[in-house]
């Protein structure tokens, strides 16, 4: 027993140092994930004590120093400034790059994934163009084509609807790809 004690002590010290190193090197995103894990969920509250569920569900947005920033934030609120996020012009470039990554893909392997991804990338590019500091007027034709596509899809991004409108979806992607490559600003 005496010989095992220093080994255990060394293992505990090493584990503690490793934990400290990980926590000191964590990014703010990791801290946000840890906060999410620390919050009780409705499922956990229900299984722990049914009467605690009623107390855990807020009836109004919390106020005061203990309120978390996202407790009262509606889903449509403007996101907070993120210094690590790319500048707006870079957001358009990044969104365009991810859209271009779909050019060599097709419905041959996983059509549901492919059409969903093209739709997602088009929506992200549309949002980036509208948020660009040069204004949405800097991208009039792609934004107009996206408006037409969104009207055609009528807010339904389900696979059957995307499959039904596959020609319009892929046509919009290809049109925007060509338009962006011909744009005076280099977004490639």
Task: Briefly characterize the structure.
With 188 residues, this protein is mostly helical. The protein has helices at residues 4-24, 28-38, 42-48, 50-56, 88-100, 111-131, 140-153, 159-164, 166-182.
Q: Can you offer a commentary on this structure?
A:
This protein is mostly helical and 188 residues long. The chain has a domain at 107-182. Helices cover 62% and strands 0% of the residues. The protein contains nine helices and no strands. The longest helix is centred in the first third of the chain and has 21 residues, at 4-24. It is elongated. Mean pLDDT is 72; it is low at 26-59 and 72-88.
Mean pLDDT: 72
| Distance from first to last alpha carbon | 66 Å
- Mind summarizing the main beta sheet? none
How many beta-strand elements?
0
- Summing up helix and strand content along with how strands pair, one would put the structural category as mainly alpha
Residue runs with pLDDT of under 50 for 5 or more positions: 26-59, 72-88
Query: What is the strand content?
Result: under 5%
Given the structure, what is the number of helices?
Answer: 9
Level of helix content? 55-70%
**Overall shape:** elongated
H-E string: HHHHHHHHH
Rg (CA only):
24 Å
